[in-house]
Amino acid sequence: MEQKVTIKDVAELAGVSKSTVSRYLNNGYISMEKQQRVRKAIEATGFQSNFFAKRLKTRNSKLIGIVLPRMDSVTVGKLLAGIARVLEPEGYQSILLVSQLSGKKELDNMQKLQQQGVDAILVDSVGITPEHVRCAQEWSVPILFTGQQNEAVHCIKIDDLAAGHRMGAYLRQMGHTRAVFAGVTESDEAVGIDRKKGFVEGFCEGRPEAEVKFVETGFDFLSAYNQAEEIRQMKPTVVVGATDNISLGILRYFHERGVKVPEDISVVGFGGYDVGAVVYPALTTVAFDYELMGMKAASFLLNILRGKEEEQDNLSMPLFFVERESVRKMNQEFVAQKPGTLTGLA
Q1: Alpha-carbon Rg of the chain, whole angstroms?
Q2: CATH classification of 60-157+291-317 is 3.40.50.2300, yes or no?
Q3: Which of the ends of the chain has fewer CB neighbours closer than 10 A, N or C?
């Protein structure tokens, strides 16, 4: 008869105490170095499969861990509203941790939630690294990432490449040839790379004379405001904020300096924030439904917990182009546009 592997066997192989192994198995706190030793010992002895198969059948904390990059964001509020609409009727509660836009802190927060025994983890990620992938593949707790894309893990995100291309094509049709793209660092692949790349392709397509310059800002209003003079000195016909928040900071600066929008410079953004409809001029933008994203993310995790197969196609997100008053059609005398219309974006 095959000898049963015990916690003591695992502890001896890992070179730790039995209580350390017990804390690991019950999601208690132990150092990352000891976690790795215990995990390797469990895999070597075959203890993991026996223990976790039993544990997964009984675990039901009714807690979902959520890791957010920041709290002072319109998009985060809408994302959480969508998550709550799905989780609360099912009796689930959320534990929120904030990474302050730090990839390292994001991973630390994921580890804390895993050790606290949540049923699943949702990460509104600043960037999916190989370590994120390892955690998602090795931990028993289901993990879903929003905001970024990686084929090795479960993700839901905006099609930033398509969104950027749509805005670029629109401005090309409006006759603009000199653009400044005010965006964030390329460490954020979705906004810093894909959205910008899509815009350049859509704006410059078939036009060797078209020019796009780049200015790096933060996500916050003040960072964009402080970069606005540098942007103005580049003499663009249009400024493209990588988010509406960036565009609103630039709009404010232009207003204070007497730069007329869109007569002198046009301004556009991405996101579809409500405030973009009430500023003057109202902001032309590509709108994203972050509340729907939260609902889809929460439903996806619940289905995984219930053992249901979820199609990745169900995680695709719609985009909407919102044409308002902040863009001038070049080579024509300026005429104020009527306030915005909302049109679907294929």
Answers
A1: 24
A2: yes
A3: N
